[in-house]
Design a protein that fits this description.
CATH architecture of the largest domain: 3-Layer(aba) Sandwich
Number of domains: 2
CATH class of the largest domain: Alpha Beta
Order of helices and strands: EHEHEHEEEHEEHEHEHEHHHHH
Number of helices: 12
Shape: globular
Helix content: 25-40%
Largest sheet: 6 strands, mixed
CATH topology of the largest domain: D-Maltodextrin-Binding Protein, domain 2
Radius of gyration: 20 Å
Length: 328
């Protein structure tokens, strides 16, 4: 029996593997519940765990540099639409995405996956020259955030941290930034400050329209197996992929059963309708695993990572994932 530590969030789609309902044959998984803000730096600097939740963007960068300690599985444990993550100063004179060109835009980390996605969407869908934006980095509501990987940017890209102690929220309110991209809303926006608004006033409608055009459901985080573990047990990649897929299907079945009950266990009245709406938008398998089902999406990310100055070269999708999972 092979015992493996797994640093991963406590998601419904992985929980069946860690609570005893399911098992990977020949493997004992020891779940270390960590938020991605904690697991990502440990993955890229120390490769501390046998399996780890990975920032997709960081994995592409490290792989392009020949520094990836983990081999990725096509298991998107975290996905999120991000059209609602662009915030503006209301008086910045920005009424359309194209008007972000040449502006000062804050982001927690230039290399984070959310920013990779949003810059790609702005470039491909709205014709924005994202490399012409002035990028400034800092924590959204608390100071001290830094890039988890050193950047190797081409000449002409203006990316720099804000001064020590600064936050994106404060810089936006002070007029030092015109916009902010952040998965965590600025505190001023949450408080209802009229000086801060969203670029897309109806982000759900914008995301759904984009999804219908592209078919993409943005992957944020993958699962990776440490390379030395893979080398010692080559069969492990496929076994783990199959285990995570079974766990995801078990979670989907549990949700379907829960929402079919006449007295739902949750406090939210229209979750069943939301499930049907999600299937209408994304198909019968909304949270799809595997390379084939996500190839176009992964290819776009590989292209954007190089175009945005992150990856040293444009990776091929098939070299991103464990070979044993390519036929998944």
């Amino acid at each position: 029996m092979l015992t493996l530590t797994v640093a991963c969030g406590d998601y419904d789609r992985v929980r069946p593997l860690f609570d005893g309902r399911l098992a990977v044959p020949g493997v004992r998984l020891v779940h270390v519940k960590l938020a991605s803000e904690q697991s990502f730096p440990r993955a890229v600097t120390r490769a501390e765990f046998d399996l780890s939740e990975l920032s997709l963007s960081s994995q592409l960068v490290q792989l392009s540099r020949g520094e990836a300690a983990y081999v990725a599985l096509p298991v998107p444990v975290a996905r999120a639409f991000r059209h609602g993550c662009i915030y503006l100063r209301a008086d910045a004179g920005i009424a359309a995405p194209k008007q972000l060109e040449g502006r000062r835009v804050g982001v927690p980390e230039y290399g984070m996956t959310m920013a990779l996605w949003l810059r790609g969407i702005l470039a491909d869908d709205h014709g924005v020259d994202v490399n012409g934006i002035v990028w400034r980095t800092a924590g959204t509501n608390a100071p001290g955030r830094r890039e988890r990987l050193p950047l190797e940017l081409p000449p002409g890209l203006d990316v720099a941290p804000l001064p020590e102690g600064a936050t994106l929220d404060a810089a936006l309110l002070a007029g030092e930034l015109d916009a902010v991209m952040s998965p965590t809303p600025p505190a001023s926006f949450v408080a209802g400050d009229p000086r801060v608004v969203r670029l897309f006033p109806d982000p759900r409608a914008a995301a759904e329209a984009w999804c219908r055009r592209t078919g993409f459901f943005p992957t944020m985080h993958l699962v990776g197996v440490r390379r030395d573990v893979m080398e010692g047990a080559p069969w492990i990649a496929r076994a783990l992929y199959d285990g995570f897929l079974a766990a995801k299907r078990a979670a989907e079945a549990e949700w379907a059963e829960t929402l079919a009950k006449s007295s739902p266990a949750t406090m939210f009245p229209f979750l069943a309708e939301e499930l049907e709406a999600m299937r209408g938008l994304l198909g019968a398998d909304p949270w799809r695993y595997g390379v084939a089902a996500n190839r176009a999406e992964f290819a776009a990310l590989c292209r954007w990572s190089r175009a945005q100055g992150l990856a040293r070269r444009e990776l091929r999708v098939d070299e991103v994932f464990a070979p044993e999972t390519l036929g998944s």
